[in-house]
Amino acid sequence: MTETETRNPNHSNQQNGDAVVAETELSTRDDVFDDSYKAKEGPKPPMRLVWRNVILMILLHSGALYGLMLVPSTSALTLAWTALCFLLSALGITAGAHRLWSHKSYKASTPLRVFLALANSMAFQNDIYEWARDHRVHHKYSETDADPHNAVRGFFFAHIGWLLVRKHPEVIEKGQKLELSDLKADKIVMFQRKYYKLSVVLLCFLVPMLVPWYFWGESLWVGYFIPGLLRYALVLNATWLVNSAAHMWGNRPYDKNINPSENRFVAFSAIGEGFHNYHHTFPFDYATSEFGLKLNITTAFIDLMCYLGLAKDCKRVSREVILSRVQRTGDGSHKTR
Ligand code: ST9
Ligand code: ZN
Ligand code: ZN
User: Fold this and answer.
1) Residue bearing the CA closest to ligand 1, atom 33
2) How far, in Å, from the CA of 30 to the mean position of ligand 3?
3) Which of 161, 223, 284, 289 has its CA 20 to 30 A from that of 54?
4) Is residue 6 part of a domain?
5) Where is pLDDT greater, at 8 or 324?
6) What is the mean pLDDT of residues 48-72?
7) Which residues form a coiled coil (predicted)?
8) In 3D, which of 221, 223, 228, 269 has the Cα closest to residue 246?
9) Residue 130 Cα distances to 77, 120, 269, angstroms
10) Residue nearest to ligand 1 atom 11, measured at CA
């Protein structure tokens, strides 16, 4: 088995009627690791801080801490609404920008895509097009200069630091070569991109703040700081933990040659996205995990959408392929070994 085959194995087995990933499709996918990447020789470009982002992130996290202090005196209804806003915005990232638009791991009907695009704006993590483009470049050039949140540069950089500095030129150069025609052809993705700022003001800040005020008389102040800022900061940090903690700590049962790891704490806080060794090994699996629904609200949501007829063609990797990969490149921590 050559290294290329190890990195880009043939996962194209069919199981239980699930959709398959054809070999021909695998070779053209832009979310599969490219191990031919060579770092450019010469001095590293200087890090250029973006002070606007530094200040905004300090303000956001200060506001979120203040929101946390208000929690003990807040009504149960407002806290339940905050949890719902967390779940909706998280699904806009996990089921939407990540599993649907970055990895095409299942197909979604128009009503579901509209819902996911709205939920995605509520999460305010860049528009779907930009998120999916950066995420594909992350998978293809993981832990290199071309990875936007290259975890080799440390926990802080992978977590939040990458949003506080100009991108490494390699990220942009490699990103420009990616195949993004599917995103460009998706009218909902392009519509969300066009009206992104307006949709964020409405869905990330105004709706979370106004609903509790209008329906049960909550103060606008609490509505702004708890379902608004605190919830936004929690979803951001849960997401960033996948880039930082799950690229550093945990077992590597599927591929010991890569940094992404199985991290249960991250899986819990990121509603199913912490099984990161599995996910980087089999990026097109709609469950992002071998274990289906375990610690994986996002998979349960996609299953429900399939049951309702709003989603279909969920891609899965067969047990046989998983086990052979575990034998070949795993670190020995997989339960079957
Ligand atoms: C946020 C995103 O938080 C989080 C993403 C996390 C991903 C996690 C993945 C993990 C797996 C999934 C798990 C989900 C778990 C969810 C759990 C939920 C509970 N290719 O960007 P610029 C071009 S966002 C090709 O300005 P700078 C670009 O088009 C938070 N081209 O770069 C542009 O061209 P043009 C809110 C690229 O100047 C030009 O380059 N947002 C690429 O270096 C310049 O682009 C923020 O905090 C590419 N990859 O600035 C900050 N990239 O001029 C938002 C760029 O022609 N971002 N280009 O249009 C910024 O302010 C800036 O991007 C910057 C870099 C300062 C970071
Ligand atoms: Zn990753
Ligand atoms: Zn991914």
Assistant:
1) 172
2) 11
3) 223
4) no
5) 324
6) 98
7) none
8) 269
9) 35, 12, 23
10) 242
Measured between alpha carbons, how far is residue 9 from residues 22, 212, 265 in Å?
A: 12, 50, 28
Domain-embedded: residue 30: no
List the domain range (segments joined by +) for residue 226.
45-329
| Residue closest to 137 by CA, chosen among 150, 126, 128 | 150
Q: How many domains are there within the chain?
A: 1
Q: Which ligand is nearest to the CA of 94?
A: 1
Interior angle at CA 290, CA 275 and CA 278, nearest 5: 40
pLDDT in tens, 247-292: 999 999 999 999 999 999 999 999 999 999 999 999 999 999 999 8
CA of 194 to the centre of ligand 2 (A): 27
Token output for 92:
């806009």
Please give the full DSSP string across 277-318, using - where no structure is assigned: HHHHHSTT-TTSSTTTTTT-HHHHHHHHHHHTTSEE--B---
Enumerate residues 6+ apart whose C-beta is below 8 A from 61. Answer: 233
CB-side neighbour CA atoms (13 Å) of 263: 21
Q: Could you give the CA distance from residue 142 to residue 150 in angstroms, rounded to a whole number?
A: 7
Please name which ligand lies nearest the alpha carbon of 273.
Answer: 1
* pTM reported for the whole predicted model: 0.93
CA-nearest residue for atom 39, ligand 1, is 172
Closest CA to 290 of 270, 266, 272: 272
In a domain, 260, yes or no: yes
Q: Measure 276 CA to ligand 2 centroid, in angstroms.
A: 6
Among 126, 248, 275, which residue has the most ligand 1 atoms within 8 Å of its CB, making it the best to mutate? 126
CA of 147 to the centre of ligand 3 (A): 12
Residue 170 falls inside a structural domain: yes
- Residue 304 reports pLDDT greater than 60: yes
**Ligand lying closest to the C-alpha of residue 137:** 1
